[in-house]
Amino acid sequence: MSRSTEYIIPFGSCSNGVHTFDYELTDEFFASFPDSGFGEARVHIRVSLFKQERQLQFDVHLEGWVVLPCDRCLEEYEQSVGGDYTLYGKFGEGNSDEELDIIWLRPEEHQVDLSHYFYEYVVLNLPMRKVHPGKPDGRPGCNPAMLDLLKNLSV
User: Fold this and answer.
1) How far apart are CA 131 and CA 30, in angstroms?
2) 51-101 pLDDT, tens digit each
3) pLDDT > 70 in the chain, percent
4) Fewer CB atoms inside 10 Å of the end CB: C or N, the chain?
5) pLDDT band for position 149 (cuts 50, 70, 90)
6) CA distances from 23 to 15, 50, 66, 102, 109 (A)
7) CA distances from 63 to 10, 23, 27, 106 (A)
8) For residues 64 and 41, is the Cβ–Cβ distance under 8 A?
9) Residue pair 3/32 in contact by the 8 Å Cβ criterion
10) Burial 3-26 (b: 16+ CB within 10 A, else e)
11) What is the phi/psi pair of residue 120, to 5°?
């Protein structure tokens, strides 16, 4: 599965200190993750890289929306996503499977691809049960015809 190189951060060419990178995740980005199940999407991500001599710190802020199928009525709806995450890049040998917020980098590496982490952060923002948000008057936001059909078919 090939991904764009635009989500690679070239930390090797950055001086020590703070550097900011902005990304816009759209339908094309999520298409490279076939199991995502997203329709349309627009998620803005800002990465603040704090580079130190022996460690990198990536502070990731995301906000936007993705279109999902409703679990109740199967029509698509817009789900907002947003959050803040911190990811550390350390040089040396380590086990990334045990430390979920640490990327282990070989000393000769000079860039890191964060696309998979961006995808995971968006997925972590999704609710377990994906349903239309309720209307201001308290009624469900789902298709009323589908809700009536479900009511008639339920035991």
Assistant:
1) 20
2) 998 899 999 999 999 998 888 888 888 999 999 999 999 888 776 566 778
3) 92
4) C
5) confident
6) 21, 17, 15, 21, 22
7) 23, 11, 15, 31
8) yes
9) yes
10) eeeebebebeeeeeeebebebebe
11) -65, -40
Ranges of each domain in the chain: 5-153
Is residue 118 within 8 A of residue 66, CB to CB? The reply is no
Tell me the C-alpha distance between 147 and 142, whole Å. Answer: 7
Q: Is 104 within 8 Å of 87 (Cβ atoms)?
A: no
How far apart are the C-alpha atoms of 123 and 137, rounded to whole Å? 29
Which tokens hold the place of 86? 């911190």
57 phi and psi, to 5 degrees? -125, 120
Residue 55 Cα distances to 17, 34, 105, 138, 142, angstroms: 11, 33, 10, 50, 48
Six-digit token pair at 112? 């890191």
Residue 61 identity = H
